[in-house]
């Protein structure tokens, strides 16, 4: 180990190899505090070359590595199990000039989403992905987990934004696809393979991203509805009529009640509705009239309120966006992130409470999410000691509806045991063959996504 | 071999294993007639299960396979080198009902692009990819080559349309991702890995596709311009102002002359312009006024003509679309398909004639393509016996401009020798490790995309 520490110091400089327990500690626990483990050291490279040097030193020593970005992950993929070298990428913070002709930019993996957004907007463009942890989440982590967020409906997930990337493979070689070609059919798309691979196939160090037009006009509608079926009807009408639609978020009466109690918010409607949808439209000119016309056309609408000024929009978004905070304030929830084919969403939502009650009587499920993608964040409060039973029951119900046990958070360590619910043995075998081909010694993020094999380094 | 033929007959039935030379012949030469080779037999499975049976039989016999769709490829990936079992997928023609709520459809790999388009339109939706060989090109081939075409600007390439797929891996196992989940972060994206892999990692048998809105209103502008720089200026203004922009195609004066002579078309403008761009907008309401406003705003426009009726649109498109036919009528061209970063496009276009003349004096380069993607189809007439020299010189020039030697046609066999111009040794090594992981015996499309290794089955 002393030899490895020396080798790492030679690569990144003494100040950036943290061996002291106090210095390591902030990196060793994720922000949910559910995942924690000791690293043999934390190493903080500042360039692709330094990352490659770190990986080569670890490979030579047979030392497993765990890769960390902003440490905002929810499935424990970025913290050590024990004794790995923790490679933190937050020093890769280069923001290259925006290429306005191509509407692209190249940035370092350690750049936060917020810094990227500000950089794009300063050049008169915007970035297609947005999510709540924008001030901490890093671009490298967003790529490694193929992050989603609230604008997937309009712009797709993180993998859709990728025009290319640079990465260090487990053997320390560097692959670099940063020219930003929109069309390039010269073999396997390593960029797309690395996106969503959770750091198990390579360490993303730089990313070439597509940017989107910066649209100045915005309007938000909060709509009260009878149930999830009505929400799907509204969604269908909105997608048909509103080319400017950029978000469609759903939540339910119990979540709304929790949020209102927590934040002291007034009732949005005179009447109480079982389900609510927030629609947001973003355009070159004010989309308010288009939204109002659309709502008038849709019979499923129970009641609705629309705002186009910043304060009004924030007021409506707050009913949705305060969910996470209000839930955390009410206890330590089971947090699951699932999606099902859109047609299955109403029955999933109907069946979830009973499924959860069967294993944790008295538990309180709070559901909210991205309705267009059939993506529901299942938060369950008051589960007592039935954490694992609730997780198992929910994920099995999702699988029965042909859904994904991880819609946007990834598998990490948290869901490895349930991977088989979403991926067949044949698919897992194919993934394993790819992993073994690129990382035969199993040194990169062992135990993340795929279970450790007996006899391998994990 | 006789044993293998028997085994294949047991899988697909005797009528669908073609051993007679006359019956095999239509499958053994590509439509450019540049690539030809004998297959040991042609096998025509009709379902995923039959494809899996064919692959297992071949794997057991150690027999290499070559996979063919509509046989419209331009790089020789779908015809045998010699003695492979040719697996033709044209019988996988299932068109499942369109899922209007999800705006998705599942179809067999052998469905033609045209049949898919008609199927989507009958349900009030459309498919995002369109290209000239639509009546023959099959969905499986479009996926395997990540086909592009004229609407990439609006909807992206074929890989962007994929909501999932079903494929048979080289060991005969089936992976199936057909639930159409828009968000699913449960491990490596095998769908995206197989897209563009040219049949070397698996045989795509069914595909789940995103559909796009069927937009009824359409207008086309033909614009005369001073040069490629002016075309980029027009593109930039059009992208900023026309959310309905769906195509931007470029061609040049010598191509226009060839097309007019071939098809007897009148001059589009009173004056002759060095470059022309076709813009198409597609929208819910007539985009003509928006196009006219945009053209009026753009100083680079030399002259322009706009049409919104079907006959007028066809008349303007003909100047671009007749290029391939007019070139073929004038001789057997070198046909290359390249792209460069947009900022490099003007210098590439300026340098190509001199670069070609240096190795083939008297050769006539005709350039046209998809300007938004920096994608130029380089056709060179009258090259004499300098076919390979012209190819080499053009591809090296493209590489010097940080471009791709294959923008949308793939590597196939035609460009294997030049792969290193677009992909680094480290990338090729990574691709090889993936290939060896999934197809250790090298039985699937040997010699396509990656060179055959000494000692492997190719």
Top keywords for this entry?
homodimer; about 450 residues; alpha+beta; Uridine Diphospho-n-acetylenolpyruvylglucosamine Reductase, domain 2; Uridine Diphospho-n-acetylenolpyruvylglucosamine Reductase, domain 3; Alpha-Beta Plaits; 4-stranded mixed β-sheet; FAD-oxidored/transferase_4 (chains A, B); FAD-linked_Oxase-like_C (chains A, B)
What does this structure look like?
The structure is a homodimer. Chain A is an alpha+beta fold and about 450 residues long. Chain A has four domains: about 1-90, Uridine Diphospho-n-acetylenolpyruvylglucosamine Reductase, domain 2; about 105-215, Uridine Diphospho-n-acetylenolpyruvylglucosamine Reductase, domain 3; about 215-325, Alpha-Beta Plaits; about 330-410, 2-Layer Sandwich (Alpha-Beta Plaits), CATH 3.30.70.2740. The first copy, chain A, is built from 17 helices and 17 strands. Chain A has helices at about 1-10, 20-30, 50-60, 115-120, 140-145, 150-155, 160, 190-195, 230-240, 255-265, 290-295, 310-320, 325-330, 345-360, 385-400, 420, 425-440; strands at about 15-20, 40-45, 65-70, 85-90, 105-110, 125, 160-170, 175, 205-210, 210-215, 215-225, 245-250, 275-285, 305, 335-340, 365-370, 375-380. In chain A, the strands form four sheets. Chain A has a seven-stranded antiparallel beta sheet with strand order 14-11-13-12-16-17-15, with helices on both faces. A four-stranded mixed beta sheet of chain A has the order 1-2-4-3. The longest helix of chain A is centred in the last third of the chain and has 15 residues, at about 345-360. The first copy, chain A, starts with a helix and ends in a 20-residue tail after the last helix. The mean pLDDT of chain A is about 95. At the A-B interface, strand 8, helix 8, helix 9 and helix 17 of A face strand 8, helix 8, helix 9 and helix 17 of B.
């Amino acid at each position: 180990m002393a030899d490895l520490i020396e080798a790492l110091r030679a690569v990144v400089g003494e100040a950036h190899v943290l061996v002291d327990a106090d210095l390591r500690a902030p990196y060793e626990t994720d922000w949910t505090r559910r995942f924690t483990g000791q690293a043999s050291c934390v190493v903080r490279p500042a360039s692709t070359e330094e990352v490659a040097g770190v990986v080569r030193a670890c490979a030579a020593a047979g030392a497993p590595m765990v890769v960390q970005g902003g440490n905002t992950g929810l499935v424990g993929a970025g913290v050590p199990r024990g004794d790995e070298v923790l490679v933190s990428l937050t020093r890769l913070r280069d923001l290259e000039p925006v290429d306005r002709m191509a509407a692209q930019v190249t940035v370092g993996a350690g750049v936060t989403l917020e810094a990227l957004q500000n950089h794009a907007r300063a050049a008169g463009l915007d970035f297609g992905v947005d999510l709540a942890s924008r001030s901490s989440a890093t671009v490298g982590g967003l790529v490694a987990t193929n992050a989603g967020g609230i604008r997937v409906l309009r712009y797709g997930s993180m993998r859709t934004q990728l025009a290319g990337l640079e990465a260090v493979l487990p053997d320390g070689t560097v692959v670099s696809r940063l020219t930003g070609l929109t069309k390039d059919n010269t073999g396997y798309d390593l960029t797309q393979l690395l996106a969503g691979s959770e750091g198990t196939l390579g360490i993303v160090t730089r990313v070439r991203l597509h940017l989107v037009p910066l649209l100045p006009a915005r309007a938000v509608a909060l709509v009260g509805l009878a149930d999830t079926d009505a929400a799907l009807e509204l969604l269908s009408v909105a997608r048909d009529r509103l080319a400017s639609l950029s978000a469609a978020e759903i939540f339910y009466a119990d979540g709304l009640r929790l949020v209102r109690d927590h934040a002291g918010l007034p009732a949005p409607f005179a009447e109480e509705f079982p389900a609510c949808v927030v629609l947001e439209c973003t355009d070159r000119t004010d989309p308010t009239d288009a939204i109002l016309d659309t709502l008038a056309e849709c019979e499923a609408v129970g009641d609705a309120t629309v705002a186009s000024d910043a304060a009004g929009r924030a007021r409506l978004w707050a009913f949705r966006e305060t969910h996470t905070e209000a839930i955390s304030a009410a206890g330590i929830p089971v947090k699951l992130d699932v999606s099902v084919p859109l047609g299955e969403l109403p029955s999933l939502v109907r069946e979830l409470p009973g499924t959860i009650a069967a294993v944790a009587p008295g538990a309180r499920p709070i559901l909210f999410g991205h309705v267009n993608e059939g993506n529901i964040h299942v938060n369950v409060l008051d589960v007592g000691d039935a954490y694992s039973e609730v997780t198992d029951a929910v994920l099995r119900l999702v699988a029965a509806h042909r859904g994904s046990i991880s819609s946007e958070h990834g598998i990490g360590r948290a869901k490895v045991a349930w991977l088989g619910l979403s991926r067949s043995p044949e698919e897992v075998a194919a993934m394993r063959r790819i992993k073994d081909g690129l990382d035969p010694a199993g040194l990169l993020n062992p135990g993340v996504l795929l279970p450790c094999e007996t006899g391998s380094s994990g």
